[in-house]
Write a structure and sequence with these properties.
Chain lengths: 182, 584
């Protein structure tokens, strides 16, 4: 599934999340995941929104989001130039004999054990979406009792920040026309 | 200086230059009504909050200034919802102020509590719940700023009762804090130059003009552009009046009930320059088959409209006031340098279509009265010098088609939302905004009965609107669709022509009531109605119940499937389908 990751700065005010979520439902856009948290500026929150590229016209999403008064800025994080991470807590039933194998897998993926019970184990896993998927695939045969994920967060690599990027102008014009015009 | 929140609200409205507020008081907004009594604002007491909402819209359409309406919490606020949705769809600048229950009670399901900011989230450009007195002036200033700049739209400010009652220091102007609200960037000169070159080169250009031209006040520039480019112009339902219908380059309205020449020209064009318009489904018909041979230049103030429905070849986001002026200059410069564009053959074709497939109906002298005839007589008698309103349905389409518009802000209707009951209250708002002018609402009998109570408001406020009820005893457009698409099974679309008695109803409301059911009487009755200057007038036009609106592109069909209607022979329909005179 091809996904697009959008990163948005929004005003930290009541109703902003409802506004953004409402926009998605009203325009029939699909959200795969959504993560919201504070930034260094207490008046501003940052949202990371993952949308399904196949069913959702991403440029249209960006322009519609940009129109919301409480949304300060929206950018799309490019796959190859962004760091994306997600956190998951995974609870497994650890039957005798499986416990050791589970701990080994956790060690390979660098996932710390955050709760250990005679009958269960809770792992904390952080990583890229691909890495988390690999971990979950490896754990699946042991029976995952509960899984909770934060939704993806991401940042562009390098010294730049969302605040530096110029206002989004995603409007397409054909290269030929632009060439003629210049 | 300390003011109560209520005083600050009224003072803020005054500072914003508000002349008229349409509203109806209730518990939560009551504190605001006290200072209203002694303010410079004219408050018009409506009979239903929906009337206040549409009146604010009509005021805004007619004047270009933001309309203001006010209601109390709960049902008062929800009664504004239809008008807000309507204003949102048609980009009408409007500020709605609602009272909210005291902040300590919010969330407790208090008496008359509704989460109106939640309800109106998807149908307002912006909204805000205010619970602090010192926030009121800035909230009002921001609301007016957002409603009137960029792509206009409705803004709702919901104010808790306690914040209206408490006091705070007053100062004006307040500091606006809208970090996420940016005004559109200037249009790109390179793209305008490219659009000008394309227009100058095009053999089959069409200017596809939407409501943005009226909102940006650029009808003069449009005319300059059309004449320089020698390009035919089609004005959408939202843009009637942006270009004079009598102009040789005018094609009339496009779309589902558009003129054949306009629909055909868009289908055959090699270049469409879309100005302040949004490729609405009622214009494009089936999107995939719309204007298959045309390159598209799309200029609009809202970047999100560009590429939403049809991907343009040249996109010019930005203010049309700049784009149109520069585009007209650029085309004129190309004409001066290289000569006139070669569109003569194309104009020959569009002229031929206009003559061969005009809007056609038959009014037999002794036969049933045709609604088109009434519109044409009104058009002739007023000479375009009137503000015409309509709701939604057959009467709206007949008015849009057959009235000859000469200037902007003379046509007001419910375009995108298609709101029944729009016309009477919107006419009230238009008349309040332009008191000296002739304001004529053409309304269906179905629409009229949804908001007719505002006749009382108009009579008491001395707003002498004229309401021409096209009474065919049916929900006419529904009847037409049932005739065409549901085997003539007229399921619950008949209202009956006799009840209510519109003349008596008018008189009961303190208005003049007239009736007309013969073509020969239309002029006399219209003249009588137009002459009334002190109270509203209602005319019950008993029109033919079988009359349809044509041409018609059935919903979701390609525009090439346009049906000319029963006034045309099969041979003519075939000729229209073949589009015999092609400039290709």
């Amino acid at each position: 599934m091809s996904t697009h990751t959008l990163s948005a700065l929004v005003e930290n005010k009541p109703g902003v999340l409802a506004h953004v979520a409402g926009l998605f439902s009203r325009r029939s856009f699909n959200i795969s995941s959504l993560a919201v948290g504070p930034t260094a500026d207490e008046g501003v929150s940052r949202m990371t929104i993952v949308v399904d590229g196949a069913s959702t016209p991403v440029e249209q999403v960006i322009r519609q989001l940009d129109k919301l008064v409480r949304v300060i800025k929206v950018v799309e994080l490019a796959d190859d130039s962004a760091v994306e991470r997600e956190l998951a807590l995974i609870k497994l039933t650890a039957r005798p004999g499986e416990r050791e194998e589970i701990l080994q897998i956790a060690a390979v993926f660098g996932a710390p054990i955050v709760d250990l019970d005679p009958e269960s184990i809770v792992l904390e896993a952080t990583g890229s979406p691909r890495r988390l998927k690999a971990l979950l695939d490896n754990l699946a045969p042991y029976g995952i009792r509960e899984l909770v994920r934060t939704g993806r967060v991401g940042l562009d690599r390098g010294p730049g920040s969302i605040a530096d990027s110029t206002a989004t102008d995603h409007i397409a014009t054909t290269p030929e026309l632009l060439a003629q015009a210049s | 200086m300390q003011l109560t929140g209520a005083q600050a609200l009224v003072r803020s409205l005054e500072e914003q230059g508000t002349e008229v507020v349409f509203g109806l008081p209730g518990g939560a907004i009551l504190p605001a009504y006290d200072p209203l009594l002694t303010s410079s604002l004219r408050h018009i007491l409506v009979r239903h909050e929906q009337g206040a909402g549409h009146a604010a819209e009509g005021y805004a359409w007619a004047t270009g200034k933001p309309g203001v309406c006010m209601a109390t919490s709960g049902p008062g606020a929800t009664n504004l919802v239809t008008a807000l949705a309507d204003a949102y769809m048609d980009s009408v600048p409007m500020v709605a102020i609602t009272g909210q229950v005291p902040s300590a009670l919010i969330g407790s399901d208090a008496f008359q509590e509704v989460d109106i900011t939640g309800v109106t989230l998807p149908i307002t450009k912006h909204n805000e719940l205010v619970t602090r007195t010192d926030r009121i002036p800035a909230a009002i200033a921001e609301a007016f700023h957002i409603a009137t700049t960029g792509r206009p739209g409705p803004v709702l400010v919901d104010i808790s009762k306690d914040s209206l009652q408490s006091t705070a220091p007053w100062s004006w102007p307040p500091v606006m804090n809208l970090p996420g609200y940016r005004l559109p960037a200037a249009p790109d000169p390179a793209r305008i130059a490219e659009a000008a070159r394309m227009l100058h080169k095009s053999r089959r250009p069409v200017l596809y003009v939407g409501g943005g031209v009226i909102k940006s006040g650029t009808h003069e520039e449009l005319r300059r552009l059309a004449e320089a480019a020698q390009a035919p112009v089609t004005t959408t339902l939202m843009a009637r009046g942006a270009f004079p219908d009598s102009h040789p380059l005018a094609l009339g309205m496009p779309g589902m009930h558009g003129c054949y020449a306009a629909v055909a020209a868009l289908q055959e064009a090699d270049l469409i320059v879309a100005l302040g318009t949004r490729f609405d489904d009622r214009v494009t018909g089936q999107l995939a088959t719309f204007a298959p041979r045309a390159q598209i230049v799309h200029a609009d103030i809202d970047p999100a409209e560009i590429g939403k429905n049809r991907e343009p070849d040249v996109a010019i986001p930005g203010d049309l006031a700049v784009t149109l002026a520069e585009l007209a200059d650029a085309v004129a410069a190309l004409v001066a340098e290289h000569g006139e564009p070669d569109t003569a053959a194309w104009r020959g074709a569009t002229d031929h279509w206009k003559k061969q497939f005009p809007l056609r109906y038959t009014q037999e002298p002794g036969g049933p009265l045709k609604p088109q005839h009434v519109v044409e007589r009104l058009s002739a008698l007023t000479g375009g010098d009137a503000i015409i309103l309509a709701g939604v349905g057959q009467h709206q389409m007949h008015a849009a088609q057959h009235y000859s518009f000469t200037k902007p802000r003379t046509w007001i209707n419910s375009g995108g939302a298609g709101t029944m009951g729009f016309a009477v209250p919107a006419a009230m708002g238009a008349q309040a905004g332009r008191p000296g002018e002739l304001v004529v609402a053409i309304d269906g009998d179905g629409c009229f009965q949804m908001t007719a109570q505002e006749l009382a408001t108009c009579a008491i406020e001395k707003l002498p609107i004229k309401v021409l009820v096209f009474n065919n005893g049916f929900l006419g457009m529904i009847r037409q669709w049932q005739e065409l698409f549901y085997d003539e099974r007229y399921s619950y679309s008949e209202l009956g022509q006799a009840i209510p008695d519109y003349v008596k109803l008018a008189e009961a409301y303190g208005c003049v009531g007239l009736r007309c059911d013969r073509a020969g009487d239309v002029d006399t009755v219209l003249e009588k109605a137009l002459a009334v200057s002190d109270v509203p007038t209602v005319v019950d036009f008993r029109v033919h119940d079988r009359e349809g609106v044509f041409p018609m592109v059935p919903a979701g069909r390609p525009n090439d499937d346009i049906v000319l209607g029963p006034e045309f022979t099969a041979a003519e329909q075939q000729a229209a389908a073949r589009r015999e005179v092609s400039a290709r």
